[in-house]
Amino acid sequence: MTKSALQIARTNYVPKMPEGLKGNVKIAEGAATESVADQKEIKELFPNTYGLPIVTFKQAEGEIGASDPVNVGVILSGGQAPGGHNVIAGIFDGIKRIHKDSKLYGFILGPSGLIDHQYKELTSEIIDEYRNTGGFDIIGSGRTKLETKEQFDKGLIILKKLDIKALVIIGGDDSNTNACVLAEYYKSINAGVQVLGCPKTIDGDLKNDQIETSFGFDTACKVYSELIGNIQRDCNSARKYWHFIKVMGRSASHIALECALQTHPNVCIISEEVEQKGLSLDDIIEYIAGVIAKRAENGLNFGTVIIPEGLIEFIPAMKNLISELNDFLAHNQEEFDLVRRSGKREYIISKLSPENSEIYASLPETVARQLTLDRDPHGNVQVSLIETEKLLTEMVSKKLSDWAKEGKYKGKFASITHFFGYEGRCAAPSNYDADYCYSLGYTASMLVASGKTGYMSSVKNTTAPAAEWVAGGVPITMMLNLERRHGEMKPVIQKALVKLDGAPFLYYKEKREEWAIHTDYVYPGPIQYFGPTEVCDQPSKTLQLEQTGKITF
């Protein structure tokens, strides 16, 4: 592997970790837990792993060690997120510390590697090549779902062959839900294999009282904010364009909100607020156009608008339409595929309820077509394929044109659209994510040593110095609820949406009118790896506000 100068320098970076993971480690267990909702149904589905206690690790005297080596398997599941390699490095170092002959096996290209028995041993030489680097290329990732008994049994064959005692699945809410289902199955048949999860997603929607943040969110937001800051600098220099910037975040607006806190755009739409207020698409257009018109009155015919990827699903009328489309296509996809392209629009219109049929018919041809494209593995519309930024730009332009005819708008409107997604998913991890991910991996190795299964690795108190972080594990069943998938109710980890009464949103709400009219842009610059601690080790603004109530720049 040819390395850049930055990679070479980063190889020497030693991640910081909690004091509780150093030296000998003892475990402390809390009270029994229950699922976040649907307790009776979840308990019936997971009789062997429900109600487990939250655990924390504390430093004890002596050195950690075991009489026998322990072999562990690891899977990277779902979309990439900065820091995944450090999670694997943390697992490796942890199990080697338990016993020098312990082995770590990586399954190739995600869960399918387990099913198809594609794997490689991750040696110290391989691990050292990937420390503190971005991407998932050490073993690759995939989106195959682990959900059937046949898959579980096929996986168990290779786990037994390699004498693997524990499997760590690094993924988002759906991947960790699958880890929970697998843990339950292996426990029910006394397979002798522990299954653990690790919270990964740049979207930031895998978090709760025990999981402060999912890894990769910090780095991705810093990368997007750098790009937004660059655009705003150009915007403020040319003074003639409105930039509509869509950022990742299918089910929640955490990325959009964090980027707004870092860069101070003129407009940032928060999907959760749109849903709570029951706003229509026209309401959103009216708001954005209103900000543009007010700035134009001050001679400012430029600005930035941040749009969350999943916005269209949070508009109540659109959400109802998409829900009916998802259910319909889940049962009629083959028939729909046989319809000629020229007739697909009329076919869908004829199959929907009158209310949703009317909404679908009113949409531009391109957006209507994008709503019927292939579903993701969970049966949902792929919102990243819907060009919401272009839809809003076109509709805002029309609104301003109408206002101009009525004498309500006298400015000049020119727009440029952007979508920031893949630019942030494999970035080299920030110091925060490098430290956090390594600690998550090391914690997972301690959960292995403690014989735990059905747990997610947890590291808390991460706005404090790393030495004060608290490592432990959370039962995955504690996070489950029932949701409709492919037309059926399924147990899944409840997504964490932006809290409209939470400190991050309230701070933005307090500032947004000022940011809308004035040009108060912040230009964060590139991610800082080296330099003053107050610069290079900062956690996200979201985490700062949630944990301390204060924000620093």
Automatic annotation (TrEMBL):
Provide the catalytic activity annotation.
beta-D-fructose 6-phosphate + diphosphate = beta-D-fructose 1,6-bisphosphate + phosphate + H(+)
The record ties this protein, via SUPFAM superfamilies, to: Phosphofructokinase
What does the entry report regarding how activity is regulated?
Non-allosteric.
Which EC class is the enzyme in?
Answer: transferase
- Main localization of the protein described in the UniProt heading: cytoplasm
Sites binding substrate sit at T201, I202, D203, K240, Y241, M248, G249, R250, E309, Y422, E423, G424, R425
Binding positions (diphosphate)? G79
Q: In which pathway does it act?
A: Carbohydrate degradation; glycolysis; D-glyceraldehyde 3-phosphate and glycerone phosphate from D-glucose: step 3/4
Active-site residues are D203 (proton acceptor)
Gene Ontology molecular function: 6-phosphofructokinase activity; ATP binding; diphosphate-fructose-6-phosphate 1-phosphotransferase activity; metal ion binding
> Which residues are listed under the site Important for catalytic activity and substrate specificity?
D174
The regions listed as transmembrane in this protein's record are none
InterPro entries given in the database record:
ATP_PFK, PfpB_PPi_PFK, Phosphofructokinase_dom, PKF_sf
- Tell me which residues bind Mg(2+): D173
Entry's Gene Ontology cellular component terms: cytosol
Q: Which cofactor does it need?
A: Mg(2+)
Q: Which family does it belong to?
A: Belongs to the phosphofructokinase type A (PFKA) family. PPi-dependent PFK group II subfamily. Clade 'Long' sub-subfamily.
Full protein name:
Pyrophosphate--fructose 6-phosphate 1-phosphotransferase
From what organism does this protein derive?
Fermentimonas caenicola
Q: What gene codes for this chain? A: PFP-BETA2
